[in-house]
């Protein structure tokens, strides 16, 4: 059994992993850069070790340094979290070669499923539908244009090594293809050090549906149902929920079984997520496999009453899955909002600075996974996501109402966050009805934003106390006249076109 885990990550996911390790009686070691010396997760872990300067390339991406630290402190396992080294096959291999358990899939399985084109080929072979397009990387521009014209527009150019929406371009007309190809290749090169790209038909108005998989080292594979992550801006998820309103038991079973078959074929073990894009007629197509724990894993945990990090640790220790497919029980509805330090009024630019006040929501069915505390700085070095707010209720309506209330009661001051924006999005008619797709935020919800006058006083000049007072007054009024209004009326600020225009 694993005795000490080194967490090769930072922020909220490091805190999340440490929590489960503690519950299991496993010791934890954190690693930190200059910037993270005093971060919450370093205090929460049993031990913490310095690994280098703030830029990730000089600390959290240094595989050698991390392995060396694990050996030095006697950690027998490494959990990579998400991002950073989590999907690097070589890191999984390095752990193994050094006698350290990698809490994730073996290198060979990451190679087979982590590369988008390799995974797509494997999906086709195993009878999982894929988006029409190429399954081979292309580099020649003339050849690429020919293929693009054959596939037809709109199409999507994607980086084979891609992640986090980077290196991806939608092309609507042939005349824009060449420049989009160049941009995509350049971005892929600078983000992933690999400029190979491929082309796919763009599924207009699609929904992002993904399946959570668990596979042990004894050939047992189960799925824990879907997550719908269609609320996206710039191909990045903002709000996720489970179940999806478009998935019934029959479809869940069908996609889940296909995903399991593909995972088995790749010799994959540990937790993983298979992503699909689903069109209006509920045709679904394999997009990619994320060979790691996902940001939005808590919604699956709350709906299935499981601890995915615990399952990951048990699988990595060589244990058999503790449940069969029949044991998996789905209960209620769960929603997650990603809380980011960014400024929705200023094109969502990352917002940096010191958090001088936080008031967190709490209550039955409310969970906050966070890596921050009062006094913390948010920097330019890392991702802008600072925490996640998750609610669970018996029905979708209850989960939404809980989230509505939780967002109202979540106050972070000192820098800009997307909390108000999330609140408006949650209250939009399309979200309320579940009738939204991956293009909704940018095409429908946001366009009018900048034409609307601000209805809030400038938050910079407002103290946390006066925000709290305003919230209290607003809630009191709402209670008195029996209506639930949005916080400080900000939904009028964010509301886009009318819902009718969208349908
Ligand atoms: P999820 O589906 O789990 O939400 P995302 O695509 O949003 O996954 O990525 C999760 C995190 O990992 C984000 O912080 C993102 O910036 C980071 N990330 C994803 N892919 C890569 C990659 N290839 N290289 C570096 N960071 C990545
Ligand atoms: P990443 O590695 O950045 O997560 P994905 O392949 O998962 O890349 O795509 C990210 C997002 O882009 C998806 O969630 C979806 O919204 C959109 N997308 C990807 N492929 C397609 C497609 N063929 N048609 C329509 N939308 C797509
Ligand atoms: Mg993806």
What do you see in this structure?
The chain has 503 residues and is α+β, with helices and mostly antiparallel strands. The protein folds into four domains: 4-103, Rossmann fold (3-Layer(aba) Sandwich); 105-130 and 205-330, D-amino Acid Aminotransferase, Chain A, domain 1, CATH 3.30.470.20; 132-201, Dna Ligase, domain 1 (2-Layer Sandwich); 332-503, D-amino Acid Aminotransferase, Chain A, domain 1 (2-Layer Sandwich), CATH 3.30.470.20. Helix content is 35%, strand content 23%. The protein has 18 helices and 22 strands. Bound molecules: adenosine-5'-diphosphate (2 copies) and magnesium ion. Residues 82-83, 163-164, 192, 236-237, 290, 294-296, 383 line the site of one adenosine-5'-diphosphate.
Q: What is the number of independent domains?
A: 4
Spatial strand arrangement across the major sheet: 13-12-9-10-11-14-21-19
Shape: globular
Please report the total strand number as a whole number. Answer: 22
Rg measurement, Å = 22 Å
Distinct compounds present:
adenosine-5'-diphosphate, magnesium ion
CATH superfamily of the largest domain: ATP-grasp fold, B domain
CATH architecture of the largest domain: 2-Layer Sandwich
Structural class by SSE content: alpha+beta
CA distance, first residue to last residue = 54 Å
> pLDDT below 50 for ≥5 consecutive residues: which ranges?
450-465, 482-492, 497-503
Identify the CATH class of the largest domain.
Answer: Alpha Beta
Q: In percent, how helical is the residue content? A: 25-40%
Number of helices: 18
Strand coverage percent: 15-25%
And the CATH topology of the largest domain?
A: D-amino Acid Aminotransferase, Chain A, domain 1
- Largest β-sheet summary: 8 strands, antiparallel
């Amino acid at each position: 059994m694993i005795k000490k885990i080194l967490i090769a990550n930072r922020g909220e996911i490091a805190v999340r992993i440490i929590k489960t390790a503690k519950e299991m009686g496993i010791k934890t070691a954190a690693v930190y850069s200059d910037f993270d010396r005093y971060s919450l997760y370093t205090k929460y872990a049993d031990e913490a070790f310095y690994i280098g300067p703030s830029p990730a390339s000089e600390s959290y991406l240094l595989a050698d340094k991390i392995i060396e630290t694990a050996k030095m402190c006697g950690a027998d396992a490494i959990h990579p979290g998400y991002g950073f080294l989590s999907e690097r096959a070589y890191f999984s291999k390095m752990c193994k070669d050094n006698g350290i358990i990698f809490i994730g899939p073996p290198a060979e399985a990451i190679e087979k499923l982590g590369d988008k084109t390799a995974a797509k080929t494997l999906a086709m072979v195993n009878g999982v539908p894929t988006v029409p397009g190429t399954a081979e990387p292309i580099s020649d521009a003339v050849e690429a244009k020919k293929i693009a014209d054959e596939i037809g527009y709109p199409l999507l150019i994607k980086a084979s090594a891609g992640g986090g929406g980077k290196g991806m371009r939608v092309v609507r007309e042939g005349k824009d293809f060449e420049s989009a190809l160049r941009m995509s290749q350049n971005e892929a090169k600078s983000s992933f050090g690999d400029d190979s790209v491929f082309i796919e038909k763009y599924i207009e108005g699609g929904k992002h549906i993904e399946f959570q998989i668990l596979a042990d080292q004894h050939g047992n594979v189960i799925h824990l149902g879907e997550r719908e992550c269609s609320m996206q801006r710039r191909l990045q998820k903002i709000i996720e929920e489970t179940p999806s309103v478009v998935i019934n038991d029959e479809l869940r079973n069908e996609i889940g079984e296909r995903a399991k078959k593909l995972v088995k074929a790749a010799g994959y073990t540990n937790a993983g997520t298979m992503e699909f894009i689903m069109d209006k007629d509920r045709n679904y197509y394999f997009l990619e496999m994320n060979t790691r724990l996902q940001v939005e894993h808590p919604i699956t945990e709350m709906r299935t009453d499981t601890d995915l990090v615990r399952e990951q640790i048990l699988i990595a220790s060589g244990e058999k899955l503790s449940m069969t497919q029949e044991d998996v029980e789905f209960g209620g509805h769960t929603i997650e909002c990603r809380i980011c330090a960014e400024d929705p009024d200023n094109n969502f630019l990352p917002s940096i600075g010191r958090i001088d006040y936080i008031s967190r929501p709490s209550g039955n069915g409310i969970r906050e996974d966070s890596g921050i505390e009062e006094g913390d700085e948010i920097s330019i070095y890392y991702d802008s996501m600072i925490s996640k707010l998750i609610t669970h209720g018996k029905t979708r309506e209850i989960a939404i109402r809980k989230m509505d209330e939780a967002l109202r009661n979540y106050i972070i001051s000192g820098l800009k966050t997307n909390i108000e924006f999330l609140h408006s999005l949650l209250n939009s008619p399309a979200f309320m009805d579940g009738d939204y797709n991956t293009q909704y935020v940018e095409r429908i919800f946001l366009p009018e934003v900048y034409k609307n006058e601000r209805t809030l006083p400038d938050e910079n000049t407002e103290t946390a106390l006066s925000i709290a007072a305003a919230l209290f007054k607003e809630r009191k009024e709402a209670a008195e006249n029996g209506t639930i209004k949005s916080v400080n009326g900000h939904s009028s600020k964010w509301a886009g076109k009318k819902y009718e225009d969208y349908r």
